[in-house]
Amino acid sequence: MKIHLIAAAFLVALTSIVPPALAGNPLIWHVYAADPSTHVWPGDDRLWLYTSHDQPGANTHDSMADYHVFSTHDGVNWVDYGMVLYIKNVKWAISHAWAPDAVYRNGIYYFVFCMKEKGTGIFRTGLATSKLPQGPFKDIGFIRGVEWGQDPALFVDDDGTPYLFWGAGGSCSGARLTDDLLSVVPETVTNLTKQLTNVYEGPWVHKFRSKYYLSYPGLPGGQWPEHMYYAIANKPLGPYMFKGEYIGAFKKGAGTDHGSIIQYKNRWLALYHSSWVSDGMSECRNLMADYLEYRDDGTIVPIEPTTNGIAFDGIRPGSSRCTILLEAENGEAAGGSLLESRVAATRPGFSGSGYVEGFDAPGNAVTVMAQTAKPCQARLKIRYLAPSSDEKHKVMINNSTLLIDPVHGETSWEKFIVFPKTDQWMDLDLGLINLRAGDNYITFISGGHGAIAIDCFIIEPITSRD
Q: Is the pTM of this model over 0.90?
């Protein structure tokens, strides 16, 4: 718990590194993300988004292969924790990393997702776990008893009972789950399709004034693009009464839509996606949020997507920012790697779940991966500890470019960077780097000596709105 609080305090400081910013839609500019599932966890005042990830330049959703997590304290300054689950680390899956969800239960964060199964091509509803809300998450298998488990949403009622909802291709179902979340209770499986006008996929359930609201993307008259609809019931598994549309078609919508509804800091929010960043490319989507309001009778006031977005704590509408925080210790689970280095957690004050050490031989390294939607510049900082002396090491971008020391310049062909002695965790600003669209690899390489420890890599993308 102490480490968790230290990490949370560090993230508060992290989001204040950049100059004061204003909120706005799209929420995230530097990476394509969609299907936002949003949560506020016990003992944590951040708003968390669990999302799918679109590949830059894609013309198909078949290419989706991983997931991201984002958090914010104010709706303005966001943190992107990078890739938190990759399809190659899910033993039973072959393709189609589509819409996810998450739940906190018995001290564990569960990531609920869908992928197609090897050998059958059937969508399964997977489960992965982490001790931290930002992951990375480790696959533990798929939920048994779910037929074609696409677009899962996991709702936990006030009495702690878990329910799973899923839907695709014009159908929607729900069921109670066993306490371990690994199976549905067979006799509770309920087909909700006929109760939900125009339903197509992507259910989400939330509770307001003791009523259960099931929201979902649907096709008006069977025609694309999707609109967002909702229905209300007295029980989680219905019967539901259709109430209407709460987000209609809008300019540069993504064809698909998918979202969630939550209360945060005494305001109700609707999260969804569009294709504003990609200028209308429906397979390259971005995250959106607007305030949601209820009428006195409990129905939802329709939302017109805005450029204002959301903001809290006195922030005015305007342009949002996102910092990429990549924990060194996550290694292959987050798309990076460790080369003859090792994870440790004995030196206090680190963020995440640990740090990386073992850089006492030349070439020992740690690599992290940052994903971006478009080529851009970004400011790179490395958080480290070097208690013994100044140390010289290298930093390489995309296996091709060694960075130059920001203070001393290029002093030799080796292109060493001096990491000043510090017995407290410190951020070394390495200046601007160039990122390409897609996957970017950042590698810290040992110069051959030293007791340095690497905590995390902090990347601040510079967008056209900065």
A: yes
